[in-house]
Amino acid sequence: RSGPIVVKVEYLIAEKNVEAFLELMRQRRHIHSRVGARNWTLQRNLQKPMQWTETFRTPTWTDYLRLNHRLTEVDKELDERVCQLQAGEAAPQMTLSIERPTSPPRKRA
Q1: Which of 75, 82, 85, 105 is the one with CA 20 to 30 A from 16?
Q2: Into how many domains does the chain fold?
Q3: Rounded CA separation 83/72 (Å)
Q4: Quick check: is 105 in a domain?
């Protein structure tokens, strides 16, 4: 089974850049939805307010790969603008996971 795939991207954003970051993330949500991402969310860490986590899903690994190939040059420029708001030297950190159910598989009748 090759999915669903969960993508998490962690950003460190200084308070002075939060408004610009949120505007870019609104655009990023629209872009990701257009190219196949599902269940997009943005969370702010209550214990570390500079830390923001973008999360979305794709049904399969193949869908994740397709998502990246569907991005236009304009989409990639927006990603670059988001990265420019990142505090410090390190780039945003991406984590890829595969969801697994904890319940036993259903038996077919």
Answers
A1: 75
A2: 1
A3: 17
A4: no
Place of tokens 């089974």: 1
The pTM of the full predicted model, rounded to 2 decimals, is 0.87
For residues 5 and 64, is the Cβ–Cβ distance under 8 A?
yes
Could you tell me the CATH number of the domain that includes residue 45? 3.30.70.100
Q: Can you give the three-state secondary structure of 3-43, one letter per residue?
A: CCEEEEEEEEECHHHHHHHHHHHHHHHHHHHHCCCEEEEEE
Has residue 74 been placed in a domain? yes
Residue 104 lies in a domain: no
Considering the domain boundaries, does residue 67 fall inside one?
Answer: yes
Residue 11 reports pLDDT greater than 90: yes
Is the CB of residue 13 less than 8 Å from the CB of residue 29? Answer: no
Q: Which residues, other chains included, contact 24 with Cβ-Cβ below 8 Å and sequence gap of 6+?
A: 78, 81, 82, 85
Looking at residue 101, its pLDDT comes to: 80
